[in-house]
């Protein structure tokens, strides 16, 4: 026998409708607590110079090369009263006298990708005398893929490593980072090819890169990998 009670107080054998007056018996309220929607992922940090969203984990803006690790821009003044300064934390105790120094961190043969830079220069032996000299320029290899080539506004191509050489393709070469931090070069179908330490790169084939390697491309361009 059901223990249901209709709104008029009748005991009913049927849990849905009263067996005496036929009135519908409301079902008991659900005891399942409401679910809390998951918190939304925070929006990407915009570049303070050009407003481009920051690539997760990248140190430099992929458009204007702003350094996100530098001092942040001054914050807007707050309308409320200033908060009291937090008490300084206690300084850690000095290490015991005679303690053995910590072992040095391991150094990888290719150096950390975040410390790798590529220096763009011109080979005087191949440079046209009519072309004015230009100072060397260095670019960080802080992204997973760093495109080397000529800027092309009509095609909206803005390489991470721009090269002003008429014989360099707009999409000439990529310098990429593997998950272990090592780097490799990849000719992506350039018109005039690329030399790595004097040997030609095969289009679409990864070529390992290390500190001190030299890439020659275009009419006079030389790229050298450095750790900084």
**What fold name stands as the CATH topology of the domain at 113-227?**
Tumour Suppressor Smad4
Mean pLDDT: 78
Strand content: 15-25%
Which of globular, elongated, flat, extended, rod-shaped describes the shape?
Answer: elongated
Lateral arrangement of strands in the main beta sheet: 4-3-13-12-9-10
Largest sheet: number of strands, sense, barrel closure? 6 strands, antiparallel
Oligomer: single chain
CATH class of the domain at 113-227: Mainly Beta
Total number of β-strand segments?
Answer: 13
Helix and strand string, N-terminal first? EEEEEEEEEEEEE
- CATH architecture of the domain at 113-227, by name, is Sandwich
- As a whole number of angstroms, the C-alpha radius of gyration is 33 Å
**Class by SSE composition:** mainly beta
Number of helices: 0
